[in-house]
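Justification of computing resources. Each target in the renewal requires a structure prediction run like the one illustrated here; the chain below, 715 residues long, is used simply to show the kind of job we budget for.
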Amino acid sequence: MDATAPDLQPVLRGTIAAATDGGWTSLALYVLAAVAVAALAGLVILIRDHVRLERHAAKLRQDQDALEQEALHLSESAERYRSLVEGQDDLIVRRDGYGRLTFVNAAYATAAGKTSASLIGTRHALPIRETLPPRPADGGAVAIDQQVETATGLRWISWIETHAENGRLGRETQWVGRDVTDRRLAEAELAEARRKAEAANEAKSRFLATVSHEIRTPLNGILGMTDLLLATRIDLEQQTYVQAVRTSGQALLSILDEILDFSKIEAGKLDLVEQPFDLAALVEGTVELLAPRAQGKGIEIASLIRSDLSREVVGDAARLRQVILNLAGNAVKFTDQGGVGVSVSRDGDRVRFSVSDTGPGIPADRLDRIFEEFEQVDGSASRRHEGTGLGLAISRRLVAGMGGELTVTSETGRGSTFSFAILLPQAPGIRERPPAPDLHGRRVLIVSRAPFEAPYLRTRLAAAGLRIDLQPDVATALATLTPKAPFDIMVVDGAVGEDDARRLAAAASAAGVPRRIVLLSPFERRSFGPPAAAGFDGYLVKPVRERSLLQQLDSVHPIAPKVRTASRPAASPTVTGTALAGLSILLAEDNDINALLATRLLQRHGASVTWARDGLLAVDRFRDSLETGVRGFDAILMDVRMPGLDGHEASRRIRGIETEYGLPPARIVALTANASEDDRREALAAGMDEVVAKPVDEPSLVAAVAAKTPEALSA
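Resulting structure tokens:
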């Protein structure tokens, strides 16, 4: 029973009692009372239900108002979206899975020359005249450029295709097209401008060819006269000066020859010669020529000529050397870690040349363009490396002239490989070569982590019949050196470090390895000390020639390889002044002619000059002068721009050595072709004391070294 209704049980009990005790009159009164109470209870229930219904109705009205408000917002948002889409200049269409239009904006309807309503539900498409290959767009979309017929004429539209799910219509495809007709016209104009530029470039090539010939005539006279002068009776100093003139003239002639070659290539008139030459000597000699530059940067350079190739071949040796030198030179220039490898192998009836490096690689969008004239990987004004951008263009055309194709594969951050294959027939009447030593069956342990020299050594020695164990890790190599695993020969790359090399030599000696060879670059050789004192029987200079390697491994008595050292000009017998008398001066200069000029100027004023060809050697010479007991240099002339280590860093290292030994600072004078105030501040910040601009003025140079004014010197 409802808790709010009146309790009728007492009323019923009273009615029965009244009927029993008082008769029917009392009964009637009780019945009337009971009916009144029941009516009252019903009224209470009705009032309660009415209140509940009113509350529920009020809540429904609130919910209805909220829904109406939300519907209004949605309607406004939809209208704004529609207005935004309709106001776009881009063409926007949507199609269902059957290709039927489910939406078109006003721009598309205008292009189609129809109304939006008439297009919905149709499979209408703008007529296509031309379609370019699709390309990826942002967000995984696809972009397609098409030339289409519109109500206003032919237009180029760049479409972006995306997909979306529509719950009511299923999967839809949306196309957003932008009119790129102006861009395409601009590209056509650029192509025409390029055609005209190429025509102008051809005219330029003809001009260069003419001018080069005109300059070569007097230059040949200069070189010829210097040759005649060198044949006359002149003293040694005069011979040195005349030889410097001749060397400079030859350098200028070389530049002109390159310009002329490019002009001939442009005109299709470059003739290639066919002469016998030694393939191995050409490749190894070219690599050796680049070795100082590579080793000065702290990277390696190595070569490998496969044993199944003919050594004596027929071709244009000069042009082939030019291509290899250009490719390997570029690789050295752009590689800062790792190294460069030049390999030559057989490719069917052709010989394949590959130049690989561990440099930064080439972006995919630059791979084709780098072979064009005046193009570089980094063409910005802030690029790190200089150059005209002609080298690869000339190399590719030279290779094409030899019947090959110069190609490149590269991955950003993982290096590049340039390669080409050309016909090089075996030369008739091959010269007899000394027989190679018989090393068949001997077991060799190679310890090196060099990216090219190590695998090249393994390939060379394996081809000679040796059994090779290559270990890039010193610890593993030491564990391998046991009497149970005897080796006949151990070859250690000096790049592992002097301490580890000595440990390996000692372990090999204890294990009974009879032959121990260390590979050293000229830079490593200076700091390594005598190989015999480190436990080695001999050493080879990197990059290693194959024949020298085999002879050294077989030799009973170690062969001391020839090591190129920095030559030093002889002292001038004529002294014109004493302003620098008694001073010991270190000259750091990579250009031979500039070094000769500065040396002669300083010697003319009584100084003693020691020449270092680069910054690294200058630092070594400075440290050596302290460690050998000889007093340090009084002054240092430091060229700012040098390979391997520039003058700024070399000066900082020298200042660090002085601090290490507790010495007063020697005077450092910068030599630079850049004489701006910013260059001066940079030199002083690096620890230099003075800056002398090139071309060098003798009084200013002497005054800077002596730390006096020209007037004081002349007083």
